Amino acid sequence: MTKSDKTANFPNKSKWKKEKSKFRKIRKKKLKNFSLSSLLLLSTSLGGTFYAMETLTPEPFPQQYININGTTIAYEDFIDALKKENGTWYARYASNKKLNFNRSTNYTIIGDERHNQCQGIAGTKTVIDTINVTYDKKSKNIYYHYNIRDSITDLPSMGFFNNWDRITVRYFQAEDEDLQNVLNVYNDKYNATEEHEGQHFKNMKAGLLRCGQSYETKFSEQCMDEVAANLKQFLKQRQNYIENRYNRDFITERFSFYYAWLDSNPQPSEKISSEEAAFIINSIFDSWKKEKFDIYLAGNVSRTRYTLSKINYAGIIDHPQQHKELMKAMFTQNGINFYQYIEGREQEFIEMLPNETKQTFAELTQKKKDAMNYFTSVDLATDNDDSKKDAYVLAQKNNLKNYRMKQAWNSLKSKITGK
Q1: Angle formed by the axes of helices 374-382 and 386-417, to 10°?
Q2: Strand partners, 318
Q3: Residue of 101, 103, 106, 61 lying closest to 82 (CA atoms)
Q4: C-alpha distances in Å from residue 114, one per residue of 9, 179, 194
Q5: DSSP string across 65-127
Q6: Measured over all CA atoms, what is the biggest interatomic distance in the chain, rounded to whole angstroms?
Q7: What stretch of H or E contains 144?
Q8: Burial 303-327 (b: 16+ CB within 10 A, else e)
Q9: Torsions phi, psi of 189, nearest 5?
Q10: Structure confidence by residue, pLDDT tens digits, 28-84
């Protein structure tokens, strides 16, 4: 065959190159499809992770946005940004600003501000406030004079605890000896006012101002604060009674329930038996509930609202163990845990709340729940426990990783199958 015969059976050179190139592309595409298809078949035969990625639909990762000090960031990006430094999780955002995740999910940072303030107070100082008392024979009124221009006909409080570390004790003074004898029972010598007010300070230090309880439980703690202060006051009067040769003048009318005990035990031992301890604390509880609850109701509701005013929803969830520890600290006096004899009775104060107050507490609770943000929800889920926060972050990072892997696999599978 001549050269001219050979060329006569084939396209020209230029056309031949185009056909050759087209053939190579078709061959390459077939090889690629074969390779990817083989990989897909191989992956399904292997099972495990590949099989799960092929057959399971990934759960949608939260498509939410988080507001951080006015900056909005996608949840996915936020989880990506979380890094642990020296045991604490941080996230950088908005031109390298840094967020402390552990603090941002800690309701006590703001809510326990008052509790933290009182922890720095070492002790109390007592101030004596002298009240001059006169008797008007014509009107038969007793007047209590704060100063020359001011007087009242009602007996003022015998003392109070204020300004974090200050105890004010009233001393009632009269020029008339007979009137002074009437007033002595209100003075600290007999009333043990300083012991009462000092216990309020101890209760505050023990955690009375700490958040982490519902409005109802915190209200009951405010009532128990008064019961504990009355207990401390009584124990001092009891001690004075023994030290002053069993002189009943040192047991005031406030604790008249004890007279019945003294009728059978006129010379009690300094060491209080479990039987006497149970009698003392239940009697104090009963008398305060009957005689003082209504007087202190408005004030204790106000203190409850103030204590929980700055806290978010995570800080008004009951913590029974924390409550029990506070009660034990408040009622462990003279080496005796008096709380063991009245444990749970604080629920009686909650049951005595007026319906309108219960409704107010319910509305305040709902308002905080409605205002929950992402950080509050994490705080609620982890209960301000750093180990739980570690588990939460690591779980979210793992979920994000799995989500992205499955999405990538599904994308690859779509390319392979054309679906």
Answers
A1: 120
A2: none
A3: 101
A4: 100, 42, 23
A5: EEEETTEEEEHHHHHHHEEEETTEEEEEETTTEEEEHHHHT-THHHHTHHHHHHHT----EEE
A6: 156
A7: strand 141-147
A8: bbeebbeebbbbbbbebeeebeebb
A9: -55, -40
A10: 554 444 444 444 444 444 444 444 445 446 556 677 899 998 899 999 999 999 999
